[in-house]
Amino acid sequence: MTSAGTPVSDRLHVGLVALGAVGTILSGWATWVEVVGSSITGFRMAELWVVVGDDLGGGPPGWVGIAWYLVPLAGAASVLLLTWPGPPRARPSHGLLGGVVLLVAVVVAVAARVADATHIGKGLWLAGVAGTLSLAGGSLAAWKRRRYPNT
Amino acid sequence: METTAVPEHVDEANRTSGSKRWTLLGALVAAVVIVAVVLSLRSASEGSVVGAASSAEAVNGLAVALAAEDVVGAAAMLPPSEIGHAIDLYKRVIELAQKEGGLAGDDPLAGIDLQVVDLDIRVDALHERVHKVYLVDGGLGITVDPSAMDANLREGAEAVDESITLGEINEMLAEEAAAYESGDFLDARPPSELFVMVVHERGRWFVSPLYTSFEYLRTVLDLPPVDYEGSSVGLPTGTDTASGVLQQVVDQINGFDFDAEVEAALAQIRTGVLVPSIDPADPLQGVIPVAPDEMAVFLDHLPMFQGLFDQINESVPDGMEMDTDEVADMVEDLVAEMEPEFDITLEIGTTEEVLDEERTKVVVSDAVLQVVGSVTLPEGDGSASADAKLTIRGTCAAFDYLADLQGEQGPDRSTGLHEGCLEDAVPGLGVDGLFVVTRRIDGSWYLSPVETVVEYLAVVLDAALSGAFDGLGLDVEDVLLAPVAAGEILSAPMEKMGGDDMAKGGMDLAMEPNDGYTQSSSSGATGTESAMPAIDPAVLAEDCRGGDPWSCDVLWDYSDPGSDDEKLASGCGDPADAISDGGGFAFGACTGDGDWDDGEGGGYDEEWGPYEECLEDGMSQDPRSSVAYTKAMRDCLPLLPEDAQAEMLRALESMEAMVPFNECMEEHISFDDEWSQAAYTRGMRECVSLAPEDQRAEMEAELVAMEARLPYEECMGEATGTDGEEWSPSAYLEGMKSCVELAPDDERRWIEEEIASQEAWVAHEECMDAEMGGPGWWNEEWTEEFQDRNDAAYAACADLEPEYGEVGILEKVPMGDAWDGPTASEGLCAENEQRVATALVDMDRQPATPTDLADTMRVAGDYATWLVGELPVELQPTAAYLSAAYAVAADAFDGKDDFSAWSSLFPLIMDLESEYGFEDPGEAEYAIDDFFLVCGAGDIEVFKAIEEAMSVLDGMFEGADYELDGDDPYGEGGDDAVPVDSVMVEALDG
Asked: Of A113, B335, B402, B559, which is least packed with CB atoms within 10 Å of its CB?
C-alpha cells in the first residue's frame, strides 16, 4: 500500500489479458462469419479476405488474406508478452494488441452485417470480446504504471 | 507467531525458477499457435482438402460416409480435381427440390439405410500417387423403409431389405473372368475382382471416380497399361492472368489456318490410319491451358486411348480397306477445283470476378465471332459464299449472316438476323455473360472445366431458387439445360423476340418456312429466293375470299400492284373495301397488328389478352380520350401479367398526373371535329396551369412558340376550312401562300420552301395529267400498256420532277421505290449488315423509360453518322439529317420522367426540316432503305427498331387508334399502329 492509494490487483490485469489472448487464438478456429448455406471458420475467412484484397488491388494477390493471419499471431504475441520474462504480467502493449484485434473484429462484423448473405458467427463475437479483454487488461496495466510507477 | 526467515537467495532462486516456467509455458503456447497458423496457411494455399491420410483410409472413409448416408462426408473423399466445389451446391439442390415440391424435408435419403460392414481391402500401390484398392470382402446392404422416407418420395416406394457380400460378388466375377476367351473387336473381359482407384493430390488421398471408371474400361477392353508418369509430360503452361487463358483460346482460333488443316488431313488420309496417333511427348501442343490436375487422369490414360484407337484402326475389315492414296487424290482434286476459303476471327473483351483465393471467373463481356467462307461449285455451277457474324454483349447476342449463291439460275442471296437477350427471356437469371472459371496453380492461371461446370450449375440453381424460372413453364430439367434454352432463344425468329414487321419483309423472313417472298414494287420489300415451298396465289385468294385474314395479308404480298388479287387482299376479302393508293391498293393489315407475332396463339395473347379486352371495353364510350384511357388502365391493371404490373404502374402514375390537364384539354378541343391547331393552342393556354409542376415550364415554353404561330394557324384554318369536304392540297397551298406573312420569322423559311415544294409537285402533276390524258388517269386499270404509258409520261415530265431530298423540294408522299440513284455495293451491304447487327444489340425496342429511349436514339444516331461517311454524296445529307434528328430526339427524352417530352420535339424537328428539307425521319429512312434494297435484306432494321421504340409514345396520342386528321396512312381499318413519327408530322401539318 502506498500513499497514492490501493493499487489495482495485478491478477485482474493478467486475467483479462490471458483470457483475451486465449480467446483471440481460439477465435481463429471458430466461425467468424456464417454464410447462407455454410459457415466459415477463422482461417477459411482468409479466402474471403483474399477476394477483398484482390478487389482492392495495390499489392500482391492475397495480401489481405495473409494480413488476416496476424489476428491469431497477435494472440500468440500476447501470450509471449504475458509470460516473458515470467511470472505473468500485463503490459501496456497488450492493450495495443487487443485494440488491433478488436478493430479487425469490428471491421469484419460491419462487413458481415452489410453483406446480404452473411451473419456474425461465434468466432467473431469471441474475437471481439477477447480483443476487448486484452485492451482492458493492457489499459489497466498502463494506467497502473503511470499511477504507481514504483510497483 | 513465529516466522521462519527465508534467505533472500532462496527466494530469488524460486522466483527465477518460476519465471522460467512461465516463460517456457508462454513460449510453448506461442510456438503451438505459430505452427498451427503456418499449417493453416499451407492448408489454405492448397485449396479445399479433406480426403484421407492414406489410400486405405480414403476407401474406409468413403464407406463410412456412405453407410451414414452422409453426402457431404462422401464428397469429401472424392478428389477436388474431379468435383471441384460441387459439394457447395448440395444445399442449394436440396432447397430447389423443396421449392419444386420434390422434397418435403431436407434429407432425400431419409428412410434409406445403406450398410457397409467389415470391409476388407487390399492396396496395390501402382504408383506413388495412384493406388488400386481391391474390395476383397465385406457386407453391403440396403434397407428402405417407406414410412420413414421423405413425404414427397414415399409414394410408390416399396420396402427393401437386401444384402450381399463383396466376397460373393468377387467369386462371380472370378468365374466370369476365368471363362473369358479373347474374341473380336472390343470384346469385353470382366474384371476378376472389385476395386476402386485412389489418387493422391493436394497432400491427401481421395477415391477417384474417373480413374476407377477408366481402369474398369481398360480392364474390360484389355487395353494397354496406364502410364502414370504421363500426366507429368507435355503439360501446357499457364498464363500470367486469368483473362489470359481466354485470350490464348482467341489466339488459337484466330491462328486457325484452313489450308494447313486441309493439308494435314490429306496427309493423315494418305497414312491409311483412321484415327491419328497421339504424340505422348507433346500431347497437348497448342491446346487450351487446362488445369494440370484436372487433365492428369486423361494424360495418364493416353496409352489406353491410343490402344483403343489402334483397335479401331485394326478393325477395318480387309474388304473395306481404303485405297487411301486414291481417296486423298480425289479429295485433293476436289479441293483444287472448289478452292475453298475459310477464315475465322474472334475478338473478345473480358472482366474478372474473384471467387476465392484459387478461383477467378472470367466473364466474356463482349465478343465478335466472324466466319467467312467461300467455295467454287464443281463443274462451273457457280460459287457460294457465306459471311456469318455473332456479336455478344453481356447476355445479349445478335447473329447475322449473308449467304450468296451465284448459280446458273442467277444470284440467290439469303440473309438473316437473329437477336435476343437472355435477361429478356429469363429475367433475374443473374449472369453477366458467358464465363469460364480459371484456377491459379503455382502462380499461373489455367482453365478449370470442372469449376466452370460447377459455377454454371450454381448460377442456374441460384436463379431457380430466386424464382427466375417461375412462370416460364420450365421445370428443373429445363433449368439445368439453361445453356441449351439460351441457344434456342438466340435462334428464335425475330418476330418472337418482339419484332413485328413481318408484313414488311423483316430479315427473319429468310428463316420462315413459308416465306417465299417475291419482289413487290408496291411494298418496297424484298426477300430471299432460296428454296422455299411454293405458294399458290389462287389458293390464297380463295381463302382470303372465304374470310381468312392471314391469307389476305399474304396474298397482298404476292400479288402484282393494281391486280385483282391485290384489290381483294386490300379489302380483306371484299374488293369493294379495297383502298387505292394511286399505283395499286394499300395493304389491308387484315390480321391486325400483333397477330403476326402470336404463332399458334390464334391471334389472342393469353397473357395480355384480358388486359387489352378490358382496356377496349373501358374506352368503348370515348375511344379517343386520354382521360378515359388512363382510367381504363387503372381499372384493368390487375389483369396484367404480374411481371408487367410494376412497370405499367409507373407509366400509369405518370399519366394520372396529367389527367387534370388532359380533362381540361378535352373540354376545349373535340376529336370529333376537324383538328385545329389554333383550338389546341388556346386550350393549352387555359389548361397549362393544371399540368404537373415538373412539366409546366417546358409546356409554357412550347406554348409561347405555339402562340407565336397562332395568327398563321388561324389564317390557315380559314383558308383550308372545308366543312366536311375533302382536304385539298391546292387549298392548303393557297392558304400557305396567303398566310405565310403571319408566320413567325423563324418559321417563314420552311413555309416558303414548302410552298416551293408544293408548286413543284403541282407542276409535275399537271404535266403527268397532260401526258396521261387528263386527271383521273390513276384510276385506270393497271395493264402493261398502262404501265408503258405511265413510264413514258414520267420520262416526259422528268424535268419537272423535284429532286428527292433537295432542300425546299420535298415529296409529299415519299415513295420507297422512287430512288433511282446508285445502290449499295456488295462490300457495303456486308459492312452495313454488320453495323446494323452491332447497333441492334444496344437498341431497346420497348424502352421502359425516356432515358432508355434516348439511349436507343443515340445508337441509331451513331449508325446514321457512320452512314454519312459511307453513302454516296447524294444521300449524305439524308444520313446527316437522320443523325441530327436522332440526336435531337435523344436530348429531348434523356433524363425525363415521362414520355411527354415528345411535345417539345415539334419545334426542334421543324428546325431540322428547315435545315435539311425532310419533314420527318421516316422520309429520310425511305431513301436509305431504297439505297440498300439491292442487298436483299429488306428495310434497315435499325430504322424499324426506332419505329418500334417510338411506339411507346402511342399512348400519348390518345390511344393506338388515334388519327390526328382522320387519315390512316395504311388505309381505313388498316394497320392501327400508326408510326409515331408520321403522326407527329401530321400534327405539324395541322
From this structure: A113
